[in-house]
Amino acid sequence: ALPLCHQFERVSAAELRTRLQNDEVILLDVRPVVEYENGHLPGALSLPLDEMQQALASLPDDKMIVAYCRGPYCVIADEALSILAANGRTVARLEEGVLEWQEAGYAVSHET
């Protein structure tokens, strides 16, 4: 079996930016709220993993949902995407985390 982190479609930071600008995706930051508040990708919604099940109904089902967490080796996003996929959502994973996003020269947001 493939490792967990490879079961979802992956999007690059550049592709994600384009899809966000075109309003094609919902971006979820599935890290704990305190990490979200310390800086997150612009346009990302804070939805910690432990709140995912309760929040499912509030997420649109006509857009791809992209999740990210702490980076390529973090499994929080995979767990979140597993829940979403099991509920029939179209999902993808951003391979990078906030650190890699910043290293690529993109801004992070501190607005909550």
Q: What is the strand arrangement across the widest sheet?
A: 1-5-4-2-3
Number of strand segments: 5
Which residues form runs of ≥5 with pLDDT under 50? none
Order of helices and strands: EHEHEHEHEH
Radius of gyration: 13 Å
Number of DSSP helices? Answer: 5
Topology record:
Blueprint: E1 9-11, H1 13-21, E2 25-29, H2 33-37, E3 45-46, H3 52-55, E4 64-68, H4 76-86, E5 91-94, H5 98-103
Parallel strand pairs: 1-5, 2-3, 2-4, 4-5
What is the gist of this entry?
With 112 residues, the protein is an alpha/beta fold. It is built from five helices and five strands, in the order βαβαβαβαβα.
Task: Explain how this protein is built.
By secondary structure, the chain is of the alpha/beta class. The protein contains five helices and five strands, in the order βαβαβαβαβα. Strands 1-5-4-2-3 form a five-stranded parallel β-sheet. The relative contact order is 0.25. The model has no long low-confidence stretch (mean pLDDT 90).
List the main descriptive attributes of the protein structure presented here.
112 residues, alpha/beta, 5-stranded parallel β-sheet, 5 helices, 5 strands
